[in-house]
Design goal:
alpha+beta; 2,3-Dihydroxybiphenyl 1,2-Dioxygenase, domain 1; 2 domains; nine-stranded mixed β-sheet; about 30% strand; binds fe (ii) ion; iron; 4OHPhenylPyrv_dOase; dioxygenase activity; repeat
Length: about 400
């Protein structure tokens, strides 16, 4: 049964074993789970210009457009583009109708994540449990059908204006959801370009207000049956360098991982405070994309114009780092050239790097992560990383 759930979980031309290596799955028994989640179903964005943003994810992130909804398909309110890379699915929405409610969201938050949609086997069971635990049900369970079958969906409220739509797509063969048609983008990847730049979503981080982190950790525990992951980062990262606290929750098989950050008081303005100010409240801060070749991914993205945080040379020249990380699959010089960070724990190591914010506001950004056994989040890199983030904050006049 455990295997079934795992092997079945939203995996699209990425094998179970690959996925296990990429995002660090664990065995678990879904029959004891009050809210069994199979996988991320989609990360849904509202942006100011979905037409252009969808193009950005194709040429800069190597994603493939597979679906579309818009005026031509009977959706007069907005355009929506469905993009895939391995098992990861993004949906990018932008208003067409000047009265679209998406514009209210965009006015308040700028480009951002509205929905971290989850694939579940039993929508009704999950909603019943969530309701009994006091969750706000935004959409009651209901069927949506077209000629490709039926999906059962519902939605619950998460932090800020973020929601979790629950999707049971076991009776559906269409490209995404009813209302969407299969449609490729006009962008053609250059001859010889890698097939894809990442294979899965590793984790999605939420920023919440001061004092709210534990509330949301308990929300995911109680309402959604998520477990606390081994890595609890607490006081050790609330230093004068960057003031934040972070805890991580995950679904039973660790396919879905949600770190939660809150600002902490320090000498300088927390990067979380900057986010909360410019996002207009809590929201999704970064999405980590799992790649099996981070050097290639960084090279490709950089060539397409994606900007990454700089890592100081001192990070690589520090003898403590070399002692701490030991042998990794690429020479340190190659990592240094690209600004890729390394962290090691008792299970293995990981390579990671962070982009600068990808929109106009200093809010949403991306992480690339290549795991080699480590189930962590790069705790050993926080200090180096925060110093880099703070240099950027200072340039924006927000420190
Ligand atoms: Fe992360």
């Amino acid at each position: 049964m455990t295997e079934m759930i795992n092997r079945d979980s939203g995996i699209d031309d990425v094998s179970f074993d690959q996925l296990k290596q990429l995002v660090g799955l664990v065995d678990y028994d879904p029959s004891r789970d009050p809210f069994p989640v199979r996988a991320m179903d989609a990360v849904v964005f509202v942006v100011g210009n979905a037409t252009q943003t969808a193009l950005f994810y194709q040429f800069a992130f190597g994603m493939e457009q597979v679906g579309y909804s818009g005026p031509e398909t009977g959706n007069r309110d907005h355009k929506a583009f469905v993009l895939k890379s391995g098992s990861a699915r993004f949906v990018i929405k932008g208003a067409v109708d000047p009265k679209s409610p998406l514009l209210d969201h965009h006015r308040a938050h700028g480009d951002g994540v509205v929905d971290l949609a989850l694939e579940v086997a039993d929508v009704d069971k999950c909603i019943e449990h969530a309701r009994s635990q006091g969750a706000t049900v935004l959409e009651e369970p209901h069927d949506v059908s077209d000629e490709h079958g039926t999906v059962r969906v519902a939605a619950i409220a998460a932090y800020g204006q973020t929601r979790h739509t629950l999707v049971d797509r076991s009776r559906y063969q269409g490209v995404y959801l009813p209302g969407y048609v299969a449609k490729k983008g006009s962008y053609v990847r250059p001859e010889g370009a890698p097939k894809r730049l990442f294979q899965a979503v590793d984790h999605c981080v939420g920023n919440v207000e001061l004092g709210q982190m534990d509330y949301w950790v308990q929300f995911y525990n109680r309402v959604m049956g998520f477990v606390n992951m081994a890595e609890f980062v607490g006081d050790d990262i609330a230093t004068e360098y960057s003031a934040l606290m972070s805890k991580v929750v995950a679904n039973g098989n660790h396919r879905v991982k949600f770190p939660l950050n809150e600002p902490a008081v320090s000498k300088r303005k927390s990067q979380i405070d900057e986010y909360l100010e410019f996002y207009g409240g809590p929201g999704c801060q970064h999405i980590a994309l799992a790649t099996n070749d981070i050097l290639m991914t960084v090279d490709q993205m950089r060539a397409a114009g994606v900007e990454f945080l700089d890592t100081p040379d001192s990070y690589y020249d520090d003898p403590e780092l070399r002692a701490r990380i030991g042998e990794v699959r690429a020479p340190i010089e190659e990592l240094k050239k690209r600004g890729i960070l390394v962290d090691r724990d008792e299970d293995g190591y990981l390579l990671q790097i962070f982009t600068k914010p990808i929109g106009d506001r200093p809010t949403v950004f991306y992480e690339l992560i290549e795991r080699h056994g480590s189930l962590g989040f790069g705790k050993g890199n926080f200090k180096a990383l925060f110093e880099a983030i703070e240099r950027e904050q200072e340039r924006r006049g927000n420190l």
